[in-house]
Amino acid sequence: TVDGTALWTDILETARFGSTPKGGIRRLTLTEEDRQVRAWFAAACTALGCTVSHDSMGNQFARRPGRDAGLPPITMGSHLDTQPTGGKFDGIVGVLGGLAVLRALHASGFETRHPIELINWTNEEGARFAPAMLASGVFAGIFTEQEALNKTDRDGIRFGDALAAIGYRGEAPCGQHPVAAYFELHIEQGPILEAEGKTIGIVTGVQGMRWYEVTLTGRDSHAGTTPMTMRADALLAAARIIEAVSTVALAHGPDAVGTVGLMENRPNSRNVVPGAVFFSIDLRHPDDTVVSAMETDLRARIERIVAAAGIGLAMERVWDSPAVHFDPDCIASVRAATDSFGYPARDIVSGAGHDAAYLARVAPTTMIFVPCAGGLSHNEAESAAPADVAAGANVLLRAVLDADTR
Amino acid sequence: TVDGTALWTDILETARFGSTPKGGIRRLTLTEEDRQVRAWFAAACTALGCTVSHDSMGNQFARRPGRDAGLPPITMGSHLDTQPTGGKFDGIVGVLGGLAVLRALHASGFETRHPIELINWTNEEGARFAPAMLASGVFAGIFTEQEALNKTDRDGIRFGDALAAIGYRGEAPCGQHPVAAYFELHIEQGPILEAEGKTIGIVTGVQGMRWYEVTLTGRDSHAGTTPMTMRADALLAAARIIEAVSTVALAHGPDAVGTVGLMENRPNSRNVVPGAVFFSIDLRHPDDTVVSAMETDLRARIERIVAAAGIGLAMERVWDSPAVHFDPDCIASVRAATDSFGYPARDIVSGAGHDAAYLARVAPTTMIFVPCAGGLSHNEAESAAPADVAAGANVLLRAVLDADTR
Ligand SMILES: NC(=O)NCCC(=O)O
Ligand SMILES: NC(=O)NCCC(=O)O
Q1: Does A184 sit in the ligand 1 pocket, CB within 6 Å?
Q2: pTM here?
Q3: pLDDT by residue (tens digit) across B308-356?
Q4: CB neighbours of residue B312 within 10 Å
């Protein structure tokens, strides 16, 4: 088993990089705070006898040699970047849980057959650079490196430039890297495990998700002199679309969700009828055909709204991550590991996207979930119990060792 | 009459301070661009033999002596600050039209009885520091100097600090300054004069206007894992309130307007259900009792919306500028001046707020409107015809001279 106390200490220790007054973390990818936690991660892995490197997308790899140097590694990983008002567990539990596995192997001197590799993926959150899971997406061949490097944040800074600025643009091309298996430990980020009193979620897949960018163009005009009937108010049209996103999600069953999370209003002055609005839409459902139906329904509503309001529309689907079904052998390894400890568990589909969703395209993959309080995530108050986190890392350890015997 | 060509040249010349690629101006109050246009203004007035000073709110005064030094000045004025995406005429026509009047008096060596004073008011737009007309409000005793100096912009910068930073925190206390009369020339910013083929609007008053600040508090949560029914989505509630503002305005007759112009969404990340939204509301009507009825109606709707959505509400009325009726003698001076030129004219009530609305509290006051293309204002495409602007300045000149004889 892993050293749960050391794991918890690592979680608290790394939480200082970008800590917020409300007890959360603001550690957007490729910022100074990200650079600091990367340096900490590299030092911690090196101290456990691993070789640490990073690739051209800034993904960090800590490798512990195995008996058979010719075999591809069994990998673990997740991410250390956070949302603008993120918590201390999302992604972090997976990386530091992997570190706890490496520590257990190191302490016992256990020799595996495969090399064991722990990965810290760049820009999983998608909060600074859309879409989410960008660097694992390049690793898996979903995006080209060039398109990823050219993504810009909302201030117009290029991913490639931000990566170089923190010193993490590595020479090794991202992705030319065979992987025997990938296991990702993560908090559930939803309410199910806690509600049912389960310690472990055996993750069978990830739901489908799509992101859209919408720009509405109306006409800036004076709030005091422009009659209501002569306005082209882009924000009023955006308000109707926000309502439509909610309506569409509610209409497609309890598993459908739809969210407008990012919105920019222009010129954003109290006495100017807004002439332009930019916003994002996020649609998800475990069944891709339902996601498609939601999109069709929503597009029709949006077109009616902008036509009636005399507003110009540009709408683009900027991300499509179809539903993923994880590898049966990896799932079996997680199930066996969970059973060996006797942890209460259930199968679960992930509502959140994870790097595992892209790794699943190129390697046998699965995930392990542990509960988080109230199912709350992407919130500074996000929390998880030390015993659950340790249990998750124990399952990760035994699942990796099980896969090593295959 | 004034030199219309010189006036037009001044408009084009000052438009370089903060000029935008789309032909507008971005010259927010107390910025470097504002400092530049202030320096230009002071130099231009000094060249016409005026004494230029500024008070503790940064209001600039250019004084041309009269025959009787004991008399209070007859004043003209408006503002040189703009919206973030403003035009070349809003406010500017009033200040530079006043400069054209000073130039005409200077060129002819005409001696008035009263001193004549041209004023450039600080922060008329309210775009950077709310509310609008802040410095003329202090001048008129509506706001205390301390409360004005402590206003902050959306980046938290204090008005007083921004004022000191551009070097315009004068020693003379704002407001201890008797005024014989105040005339403000302005573009209409609405569609009426143009539609009716009138050159001059004889402004009889300003409609009532109120500003509110609303903060909605929900709960940040994960866009992929939080079921629709478990969300506390502050942006969705804000969307419903934006719709309600429009509904309330439409329900109170063709003269009622309601606008949400400023909105800030938090944490503003694509995959986070928004936990907090801040926005402004602007309600206006020529009749204060209707403004009150609109407020009552809107508050009831907002309370229903937030209660149903489980969202926390903080709503504050941050500005109340009641309807203003201008001085009959000043209006008579403008009417006589307009008739003397034979300009087509009509009486009009201003839909926009103006420094004149506050000056009217402490001095006989009125305004002169000229048409603007399509009634468009608070827009980079705002435009006015050189002949109309010159006509407005001619009326300003004769109205001032008429008041000087009273
Ligand atoms: N795990 C996680 O929160 N990932 C962000 C990608 C998503 O939006 O689901
Ligand atoms: N004239 C003008 O646009 N003033 C700004 C104040 C208002 O919102 O009406």
Answers
A1: no
A2: 0.96
A3: 999 999 999 999 999 999 999 999 999 999 999 999 999 999 999 999 9
A4: 14
Which ligand 1 atom is the nearest neighbour of the CA of A79?
1
Quick one: pLDDT band at residue B362, thresholds 50, 70, 90?
very high
- The ligand 2 site (C-beta within 6 Å) comprises A 222, 224, 271; B 90, 124-126, 132, 189, 352-354
Of A315, A316, A216, A313, the residue nearest A273 (C-alpha): A216
pLDDT at residue B11 greater than cutoff 90? yes
User: A354 in ligand 1 pocket by Cβ < 6 Å?
Assistant: yes
Cα A225 to ligand 2 centroid, rounded to whole Å = 9
